[in-house]
Amino acid sequence: MLCMTLAVVLLLSSLAFASAEEEKVFNLVTSSNSIATKLDAVWVNRGDLFKTLVFRSLFLPDTTLTNLSPDLAASYTVSDDNLTVEVTLKDNIFWHDMEPITAEDVKWSIETALKAASLNAIYSTAFSNLEGAAEWTSGEAEEISGITIDGNVVTFQLARTSSTFLPILGQFAILPKHCLEDVDPLELHNDDFWQMPVGSGMYKVAEFNPGNYVVYERFEGYEGEAPQFDRMVLSAVGDYTIAASLGDVDYMISSNPDQINSLNEMEHMTQFPVPINYYRYGSRDVRRAGAGEPGGLHP
Description:
- With 299 residues, the protein is an alpha+beta fold.
- It has a domain at 43-196: Dipeptide-binding Protein, Domain 1 (Dipeptide-binding Protein, domain 1, Alpha-Beta Complex).
- Helices cover 22% and strands 28% of the residues.
- It has eleven helices and 15 strands.
- It has helices at residues 14-18, 20-23, 49-54, 103-113, 121-127, 133-138, 165-169, 177-180, 240-245, 257-264, 286-290; strands at residues 2-13, 25-30, 59-61, 68-70, 73-78, 84-89, 147-150, 153-157, 203-209, 213-218, 231-236, 251-254, 269-280, 283-284, 297-298.
- The chain has a four-stranded mixed β-sheet, with no helix packed on it.
- Strand 7 and strand 8 (153-157) form a beta hairpin.
- Keywords: Signal, Transport.
């Protein structure tokens, strides 16, 4: 496993701030394919802006993915042997439907993720370090014995030490048990829930027009600092550069050199290089290599 850095550029329009006090609307763009029938589930790729605005994790990792600050968690402790992690949730935190967020949501999310058909390998690898994880995924146990709850405290008992368990837990989105507990984990990523998902972030999904746009509204039940904009509108466009030239884009991310150069020529667009850390896994076919043929390394 390699931790790598991808260089991308964030482009921000000065028009967003010129009109922020009057309209308090922030305009973003995407392709029509990305919002064709539903919004993307959050347990494969956590990096999209929508997934960080609408959903939350226990922690917020920094750009190095090592230092953690609280998000849904108020605090955490780690035992001297690094095998026990105790996480205390914040009081008075809510889902967008104003149901309380509980330790049961945390336990259910991790257990369900390990049986889900669509899950990033960093999560399955990290959570497999929990005591009882193998018995749970094989169907031998009714729960993961290494996750226990007491009020708003979640205790994780690891079978072996893992230096990445906490940073990866900080990237894992907690989902609402009361909305999804009856959904087959193998079909969770395709469920109708993702047409109007219930999250816990500073913005909630207010309107979804498949293939055209999504409207996010500020969530008044968010306990943190209120965001600047009342609404964010994500619109599907065919050409990002044309949309930006027309003043229809306030923010976008790109790693395309030609696109970045075109946007830099627009006086109202400003670029900010952003390093993004990510994990890449490799696999080698040792059977082929053992037969005298070179094994392939596959990202």
